[in-house]
Amino acid sequence: MxxxxxxxxxxxxxxxxxxxxxxxxxxxxxxxxxxxxxxIGDSITEYGGYPNKLQALLGSNYIVENxxxxxxxxxxxxxxxxxxxxxFQDALKYQPDIVIIMLGTNEASIENMGTNTDLVDQYSYLxxxxxxxxxxxxxxxxxxxxxxxxxxxxxxxxxxxVIPQILTVSDQLNLPLIDIPYVVGSDIYFADGxxxxxxxxxxxxxxxxxxxxxxxxxxxxxxxxxxxxG
Length: 230
Hints:
By secondary structure, the protein is an alpha/beta fold. It is 42% helix and 11% strand. It has helices at 3-30, 43-46, 50-58, 86-93, 119-131, 155-173, 198-212, and strands spanning 35-41, 62-68, 98-102, 138-142, 177-178. Helix 6 links the parallel strand 4 (138-142) and strand 5. Helix 3 packs across helix 7.
């Protein structure tokens, strides 16, 4: 076979697979089957309010479910590993199309500092559990919001130890990152320096919404590498 024809054939196959992944989400919207969104996280997710506000932004083409666990951690040798909680299994049974994971804050709690040696492996394990579900899962890793000031948490530890490992997971698995920004006057957005206020959860919901959707409100497939299979 002509080598040029072989290359053209390979390119066509890859293009068809990419179009098929996009078609999956397009069909779900056009036939009225909502896109399922799973919000994975700790108390910032469970009680912070951002999933409800994300639902309002996304509209009726989506169903957002909150699988947050207050106090949850990423690593198994810490106080409350997320993967040990029933919400983790519930999230898998939900068969989500989109997964937003915002964990890591509790790794920087005073009682958990120093237990993060296997964070990359444990985070990858959690993500792989969703990737192994049937169909295509679009998975976004959300950086935990900055810790402003709280005696039970170490902001420097979060920024210098935890966040770099989260970035490593994002790079290794080729998954897009949602950056929850530091905001000037953050006492308005974080009541105790960690947990969001009404304004804070509104900000988080808006940042997540802009990260996962295109201007027309459809899922942002372009955030993933060519040929991505979640």
